[in-house]
Amino acid sequence: xxxxxxxxxxxxxxxxxxxxxxxxxxxxxxxxxxxxxxxxxxxxxxxxxxxxxxxxxxxxxxxxxxxxxxxxxxxxxxxxxxxxxxxxxxxxxxxxxxxxxxxxxxxxxxxxxxxxxxxxxxxxxxxxxxxxxxxxxxxxxxxxxxxxxxxxxxxxxxxxxxxxxxxxxxxxxxxxxxxxxxxxxxxxxxxxxxxxxxxxxxxxxxxxxxxxxxxxxxxxxxxxxxxxxxxxxxxxxxxxxxxxxxxxxxxxxxxxxxxxxxxxxxxxxxxxxxxxxxxxxxxxxxxxxxxxxxxxxxxxxxxxxxxxxxxxxxxxxxxxxxxxxxxxxxxxxxxxxxxxxxxxxxxxxxxxxxxxxxxxxxxxxxxxxxxxxxxxxxxxxxxxxxxxxxxxxxxxxxxxxxxxxxxxxxxxx
Length: 413
What we know:
The protein has 413 residues and is of the alpha+beta class. Helix content is 32%, strand content 16%. The strands form three sheets. Strands 1, 4, 5, 6, 7, 8, 9, 10, 11, 12 and 13 form an eleven-stranded mixed beta sheet that branches. The chain is globular, with a radius of gyration of 22 Å.
């Protein structure tokens, strides 16, 4: 994710932990404070508390561990605070090795994809935050600006050395930098009175990459096939299962209805993504785009007046009707990029009865609505780069209308 961004009827679900503490009453009050949207939560999947990635482009790790923590809650394993920086540290290592093997002809930055978290857990295990925080010298907030520059400079120097050969010790040097900034990795640790290795801890928690599936919706590849999506942060060439834009939305709805949170990568650089307002929408840009239901209130306004109103960020705004063609065009023009990873964990309605998805972010509790955002279905349809969720969320329920995503091996009910 980009460094400047710091990378039917649904049944009600119980809120299991303090992390989902935003009640309907609280969100209504927050909406009044902004003078705009008033959101009422309808469905909440249990999640752990909001965290802060601070000055690090590691949103993908925060959203991925948030999904894993939510899954542990759903499965009755209890409340866990997993180490995001354990994932980040090993991803830096893997990324540097691939960068070197490609002679520097690849992206090497702080960003990553949502699949990276379960990929790293499979290879290196996982540890609790109390065992490995990635914070040193009394620091309380993450700052990777110097670290990312140092890693890139070192790896470039190794690749470009005059001998044109790589020694066996260059990875030791890389690990030395990672140890200096993030701390050395423990081989064993004690948690709740029991000794673990990172891999045995992951096995006990039951976090496996094969249990998750990655989705996108692009028209430049065949439907229902898996392909490495062409985004800079997909350094690991992770395969994405290609579905229709409508199916992408249904995947989210089905998962939330069954109590599964959805890991979500999206573009958050649009005007409709309000940092303080805690909402993500796709406002209309001209009179021709206004839906019939909103035409009376916006009648007679010029296109320029409509654009000015959407910039004010007050009052509920009409949204554009997203099509697959619009979605693909925005991706091809670099208007929709893999900016940020978050966790979709609920459903809400605004004061007019419109549906939104409740999203847990990783910018701390001061951002948005105590760290949460509300994204419209139009925003999710138009700006989603990828979704990651457990395969178990997409099984067939008796009585449901089911359709198959045949070649991806998924049955969606």
